[in-house]
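target protein:
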Amino acid sequence: MKKFNIRKVLDGLTAASSSSSAASAQSGNRENDMIQETLQSEHFQLCKTVRHGFPYQPSSMAFDPVQKILAIGTQSGALRLFGRAGVECYCQHESGSAVIQLEFLVNEGALVSALADDSIHLWNLRQKLPAILHSLKFNRERITFCHLPFQSKWLYVGTERGNIHIVNVESFTLSGYVIMWNKAIELSSKTHPGPVVHISDNPMDEGKLLIGFECGIVVLWDLKSKKADYRYNYDEAIHSVAWHHEGKQFVCSHSDGTLTTWNVRAPAKPAQTITPHGKQPKDGKKPEPCKPILKVEYKTTRAGDPFMILCGGLSYDTVGRRPCLTVMHGKSTAVLEMDYPIVDFLTLCETPYPNDFQEPYAVVVLLEKDLVVIDLAQIGYPIFENPYPLSIHESPVTCCEYFADCPAEVIPALYSVGSRQKRQGFSKKEWPISGGNWGQGTLSFSEIIITGHADGSIKFWDASALMLQVLYKLKTAKVFEKPRGKEEKSSTEIVDEDPFAIQILSWCPESRVLCVAGVSAHVIVYRFSKQEVTTEVVQLLEVRMQCELNEVESPECGGEQVSAVSTPGTSSSPQTSLPQSHPSTSSNNSSDGLRDNVPCLKVRSSPLKQSPGYQVELLIQLVWVSGEPPQQITSLAVNSAYGLVAFGNGNGLAVVDYLQKTLLLNMSTAELYGSTDPHHRQPRSPRKTRQPSAGEQTSKRKLHPLTNNHDIYMDNSFSRSRSSSVTSIDRESREVISSFYFCDSLSKKSETVAVPSLWVGTSLGSMLAIALTVPSTPEQRMQQPVGVSFCGPVVRLKGGILRMAQLDASGTLLPHVYESWYEPNAPEEERERPQRRRPTTPPSSQENPDCQYAVVCSEKQAKVVAMPSQNCVYEHNITETSFVLRADVVTMTAGVGIACFCANGHIMTLSLPSLRPLLDVNYLPLTDMRIARTFCFSNQGQALYLTSPTEIQRITYNQETCDNLQVRLSFQTETAGKASRSLAQHIPGPGGMEGMKGAASGVVGELARARIALDERGQKLGELEERTAAMMSSADSFSKHAHDVRQSLAIHHDSCFVK
């Protein structure tokens, strides 16, 4: 076999991770060269696929009433587009500036975005990937408000200086027409009116522009005569303005909680002034001031009273009240409380035409952490059931796992039990944001994402076909007693907050056995059942884990081969603990007054009703030992074929038989080595401070964010470790259990037949093996104990062990051993327990005793070891200057490989078994621990991570998937003087003009084409011919007015001013 070299890649000051692949084939193993590897570098390409979840820190929103597409902008410059269920799209402004406003070119498949860096951008949404066509950067003025009239090519841009500039949307250039603030207000104010906070056109006359200034002045500007028709003064600042559809009245919302209604031709004083939430004094005086009304919308109906919808305006004495949306309809006023502050809201109407009865039917409310749509047509204003996966952050995500190519029956089974958990009381109507089309060529395999959360909940998500839908939610906190208040918190808890938070997940899709580890040093084993049961007493097993000899004085250099010496062992150790059939009644104090033999959380004492779905099989809790709290669990694995669960931490490891509810093994890491321990260990250092007795006040530990034994800063509020709970000081002197792997293997050099085994990986780079003797029949399995014998070290690597796997003699990945699912609550006579599935291993021959390969990947390197000879046949140094955060052995269509994500942002893949580098991309620098804690690979070239506290980013490293990605949004429509160069700079976008057609001249033709396009999409804009005739008549007047405007403006290359 020839050697493969991979070049070093430099990214700034950070060296890339690759060094030459050391194909150190042993002289006796040249037959390995005969393994034909089918996985090649051309099978890999890295690209983002889809982003799920709620847009993090939203800042603006827009809706296309014809295409029925919703756009949301964020403070980080992201743009999220939503259509019907499953239709989502993510885009990003390169500058990363906040999106302050969005405006759709209605039914055009285009969108204008205004950013906080004073740039505006035109997006083309109708090409394969939405892209920016044009950009315009303002240099001397700050953008405060934008307005794009319906079916117009003129974008009005208001600035902080009070001026309004006009942009031609087709060419994205500034017009020479500027409305200066001093010309607009003239003598109506002696001072500067402040920024422009509102711009809108009169619904009945697009030549009349309504301009709102922050100080309270509103100006109706005549575009043709270039002067103000009317000026309206109010002594309170303005936040928003809304027109009546007839264009004869408008409403302003103010900073003192009032709404003023003005007649267009009566500027002297408001026709009406109301304070919706103000207390009306009996003496007729002005109501007390309220909080500002941030936005108001005024929508009319043909058959009834108009709707006035507003946010804000509550009385100042409503301290602690949640944010509210107020709906005023006729004489009724409904105050709808929201869970989070309101960012923006939009009223959805039956028609996009501003000069027709609006007929509002829903309100989209964008909150800081949620999206709510309210049904205005039903009594009580119920909300619509949201089809988007926006509840990922319902409780902060603490860990996640990704399973691609799952058994086909798992998703329907989870959906059947999860459908019973759905909330009731939603609107009976269909979700109104229903635009876009499904992408073609979706993936064919089943995918499941599991997320663990800070409140102890676990969510199962169907992630097939680039969608995300919640299937089932499990609440693990139900097995514990919940303290009613902080004063009732147990003094034995070891975390300041979120004591039920999920830290590690281990799931077997075939058997549906789930095992979770929490931050309070507890492990829960769940079985899946379709039947409801009531558990009188939760099965509890308390484990006392301590280690007197674990501090390493001078660890030897990792990476050297260690010959394995089989060390006989027993099935238990002196630290075993009997299972508890009831909540622990152990004494809280030892003889010297220190806490001892008490768990961190109190187990539920009342009967537990368990609905169909995941039900508790066994609860395992680590207990305090002589005044010291238990170490957090750093590794976890469950195996359904053996009926065992293994977990480890800084003190050692434990193996529990969850079928017999007994503790098989509980020992320190040092004891695993036997006489072959390569480290010089000393007794643990005594504690610096005395633990307070049970009656004294104690301060709980503050958990430090660590991952893979590297101390990295994380600014996230939830600082949990995924694979290490020791401090950075202890990390250098303590060997932590970092990974497990159950398999049928040849763990001893003398073995010729594979036997059940447990491989153990440690933070100091050692891989050790434990042989298990599992009774063969189901009857014997429940009666006889599982035997344990120690095989000692197998191989050592640099850095902590992250992942282990097994290949057969042909280099094929051996699937994990499992038992197929069966109904655990079925009567014994009806229960059909399937035989466990185990991989077949060809017998070894005298010429070639090695018939298996162990694949071991650490934070620094990867090795392939022949079994049972334990010769290292391949070795590759993954990184010298960084370290691997996540590594997985993955199956692709073309073969098997190792996928790695490094702390320096590189994503790499290696072939198996030769460890040839196939992919090395500098993708994502590690910015916080959220990414490190949640990044995971899966089969078929899929991966994901939590890109923000509310969003999951899915990526693929599969070339075939990248090629087959289809557009997720599809629009089916048919379209319709010189400024100062120093004011704004035009920047051509990378998107090209694909699918974009220039707007034609003439309002009549524009309305006709729009009407045809709307009818093609099934949008009924009117049922009466009189309404159509009115539209055409209005269009004629608009067209005549446009002709006059064109003559007054000296604008080159434009056929009309207003379409």
Observations:
- Residues 255 and 292 are 4 Å apart (CA to CA).
- The chain has a mean pLDDT of 81.
